[in-house]
Amino acid sequence: MKQRVSRVGKLCGQVRVRIWIVDLRLGMNYNSNPFLPSPRPSLDFLSRQKVAALIVMIGSDHWFCRSPWLGKQWTGFDCLTTRQRSSLESHCLPVLMPSNPPPIREPPLRFNVRSRSWLGLSVLLWTSLCLAPVTVTANEAAALAMPGPIRSIIDSACLDCHQGESAEAGVRFDQFQTLSQAAKIDLLNRSQDQLFFQLMPPEDAEQPRDTERQELTKWLRHELRSRNASKLDEKLREPAYGNYVDHDQLFDGSITTKPFTPARRWLVSPQIFHQRVNAIFKLDGRSRQSKFYGVTNPIVLPDHSGVRYYDTATLDGGHLLVMLNNAQWIADKQIMAAVHHEDDPRKLEFPNPKDKWLPSHAPEAFVAIVGLESMPSDEVMIAAIHAQFDNVLQRQATESELHEYLPLLKSAIELGGNVEGLRQMLISVLLKSEFLYRLEFGAGKPDAFGRRKLSPREAAYAIAYAIDDRIPDAQLFQAAREGRLQTKEDYRREVNRLLDDKQSFYAVADPTLSGITIHGSQVTHPKINRFFREFFGYPSSTKLFKDVARSGGFYDNLERGYSGTAGSVTGEADLIVDRILREDKEVFTRLLTTNEYFVLHTKSNEEGRKLVEQWRRAYEGLKDTDWKENTEQALLDNFETHQELFKIIRIDNIREDRRRVHLRDFSRFMVFFENTFGKGITPNTYPWFFHGGQKYRHAEIYNLPHVTGAGPLHYDGVFSRGEYPDIQTWDYPVEQPFVIKHRMGILTHPAWLLAHSQNAETDPVRRGRWIREKLLAGRVPDVPITVDAQIPEDPHRTLRQRLDSVTGQQACWKCHQHMNPLGLTFEIFDDFGRYRTRESLGDWESNLLIRNGKQSDPNQKAAPVDASGMLSGTGDPALDGEVKDAFDLIDRMAKSDRVRQSFVRHAFRYFMGRNEMLSDSQTLMDADQAYLQSGGSFRAVIVSLLTSDSFMYRKDKIGSNDD
Description:
Helix content is 41%, strand content 7%. It is α+β, with helices and mostly antiparallel strands. The chain folds into 6 domains: 5-140, no CATH class; 156-257, no CATH class; 316-435, no CATH class; 505-602 and 686-703 and 736-751, no CATH class; 608-683 and 704-735, no CATH class; 756-915, no CATH class. Strands 1, 2, 3, 4, 5 and 6 form a 6-stranded mixed β-sheet that branches. Helix 33 (921-933) runs antiparallel to helix 34. The two termini are 52 Å apart.
């Protein structure tokens, strides 16, 4: 297959500028491409060769660009930020397209636009995108001048420090009119940042009046937005900057701007990507695959508490390389399904013995093409193109796409035959950027406020992806086709229908928790539950590595096939969240204040009751046999008489070949029953001797007694599994959830406490920051790079004392005052999540809770816990003030309007995929009222958000007056 590499050369004075273009849409691998120079083009290599950009094309509508002026990463040109576009234009385009170009000294380049190569067409398209005069010259055409009133404000507030050669930070306003346009824009961007983040003027300087500050802010925003050059706008789209939008303004009703969401191409999430691959093969229900052997998910979300899936991510070179391999594997499977559509998959020989999965579906057009030895008819090839578009994008190809893909398919078949030609067409469609993006531009004429409503097709995808990760179902697509996705009531109807569906989306809340012995809980709407998992961030507990011995032996770290004790308690937190969501009353308050927990809850209440009663019958019927002294004879003598009871304890025969196993089980069950029923307590429903049962022993993390028979594994000096020391063991509550002392909501759940701790000690700073940002809508600046954020070791002082010694200094306290008083209230829990009144000091070996089966001296090397703190920032004087501990803190926050509204703000970010703007004020107030008027229903919040103008409308460009 011929690969074309073109150099586009123009002479500008004595400088030759080149663009190298590599067309990879026919499946060639970049690294093995013989037409690229060797070594592969690096940025330095491109610079030395005076190459303005290297463009690698992977689809009819998408390509990647690498340029010395764009930094180190491969970048999709259509995904470039405003700054990157400007950089490319300012460095490359003036040379490529000078205002008065010299005569071309070479013959003009002639592009081959025959069916075998779309290179010329793509170059022209790329050139039209990059070299359009409006994008290159618009900023220069409108000269940037500073009006008199603005000059007066800057003269009075800024010139004292920012003029002359000694200007602070090299920022000068006295030479503004002599600066180049680019320098002016840079100065305005820096000024806007300093003003917005309230860094300038300094606190000890004379401050401008509020009206002057507002006037300056408005002018900066207008000048930068009118030139599409505001770096602050890009920054404020990032998750970390969501709380910089004024909370009071969002909820006080002062904002009257109509809500909207900027038009966008939104990169799919990892979960949506996986479900889109399922959709390619038409897999539904139980046929859906949880993973594909040859598909690597190219989407990675950031790793932090809070909403993680935003519309700010774009395609880059990493996605390119992964998708090339993915597309080849998917196309191979599609071809194989077409070639062997009538064969028994069990009798086929697969190229890879580890990859024997075969799709059950193959479009008729694919089957027809691979079954022919001659060139297929245009009708069949068009049907194949439509079929692949339907598989990948759930739509038919447009006329313009058919004009592109039909010649490509013909050309590829001529070169490689029917099978290979079809394969290349399939790959080409799979590499369309639309497969990895959610398109939300709106349709129709703009309304009086410049907004366009989502098209019915866009609305179908937006609603589907808000409720789950799958493509729209048949009813949503039908509603879109029939024009029944236009009004708020249309949206409300479909949203409620999907929320009422308790079967279609039923799945494990977190597949990563499931392993050899532990299985994640199943929920009706995993994506809804995922909001609270991400908001609280407790799944991050599995990333810790703790010293097992320091726990007394009950704690397990993550290992292959097992998510550890942290995974178990994370699953138990999931059960709390799901229960509260199912009951859907006072959701936010109950998540913060419930004292009902699930612990080692491996069966439903009904299943647990039934099992325990059966075990009790078995114990009562067999306890008087001679099982202790002569186990085998007791089994043989009583099996026929008590066969039903033996079946309860997994003994259904007395065959010789199974005798040893049955004797073992008989003895294990009876000893277990004697140490539970025999002592008047209820056994847990998954004993230590069940497969993986030794992992179910972490009740102590909740300050509950030891689990009967479930001793620590491989820990010298402490009883091990299957041993029953003379200590108090747990009377297992079959009915769950149940009340646990010294617990209040998710913030005192071991999963959250673990997730917000360090490997060896608690982390009050991180806990306090989480509360400040997630519940109080506050802000904490990032740690300056010059700060060594380390707490000193000292075996004679508590963590609080050691923390105060370094953060109590004035320079540190400026930030830590917003975190420490909140986070230190959780010092009543250790880093495992156990409640405590005394904090161990010094050598941990002297302070084990259990050692050799005996309680250690509680006064040895320990100090009383000081968990006092201060609540500030609720906006309610009745709530703000000193607090005794975490329970007092949580109780007050649960009563706060600001905390409730902060939940709503984060729900907005989750379902909209972006930070809120001031123009979203009405949407947020409506959602807050929906929650209050419904008695605290989170479903009401969802319906309100998904029928709001913020969800339904798009706007092409944010104007200078939009916030």
